[in-house]
Structure formats: structure tokens, C-alpha cells
Amino acid sequence: MNDAIVKRNLDLVASVTRFILERPDILDRLPPDFRLVVLPEDDRELSQYNLDLLARRADPNKAVVIVRLATHQTDFESAPPQVYVPIAA
To answer: How many beta carbons lie within 10 A of that of residue 87, not counting itself?
Structure first.
């Protein structure tokens, strides 16, 4: 496992988690038990890594919530990450 990829991933997940927890309206729309997948638009390697990780650790009992954002994005007020919430089947 590449330490640089893991660090980039941890940094992004921390930012996204803070963003979601600071906005209860988003949290209210998320399923109670889910897997969070962060897909950075400007880091193809990290996006692929996260998709591969999801495929390896798939759990049919958990919904998947996808968040898209740019890795350099720091101002979530003017350009919030895109949070895709699953639709119940």
C-alpha cells in the first residue's frame, strides 16, 4: 500500500466528515449505516484506489454514499462537495 495515497485519502475523508457533521441537513438525508466513498475529481489515482477498496470490501447490507470534490478544495461554503445519497430500491 502506498503511504502517500493513504495520507491523501485520510486528509480528504477528514475534510468531508467535518463538512457533513457541520451540516445536519445533509446528515439527516444519509442512511443510518453506510460506506463513504470519496472520489476526488482531480486525483484519478486516488479515485481509482477508493473504488477498488469499495469493491474489495463490499457489504450488501450497507448503502454507499459518494462524495465528489477537488483535492485542493478548502472553501466548502462557496463550492461544497457533491454528496450523492443512495435511493432506496
So the answer is: 6
- How many distinct structural domains can be found in the chain? 1
d(CA 30, CA 32): 6
**For the chain, what's the residue count?**
89
Whether 78 has a pLDDT exceeding 90, the answer reads no
Instruction: Give the full edge-to-edge strand order of the sheet including 63-69.
Output: 34-40, 63-69, 82-84
Q: Which amino acid is at 2?
A: N
d(CA 17, CA 23): 10
Domain that holds residue 76: 3-84
- For the stretch 8-41, pLDDT in tens is 999 888 888 888 888 889 888 888 888 899 999 9
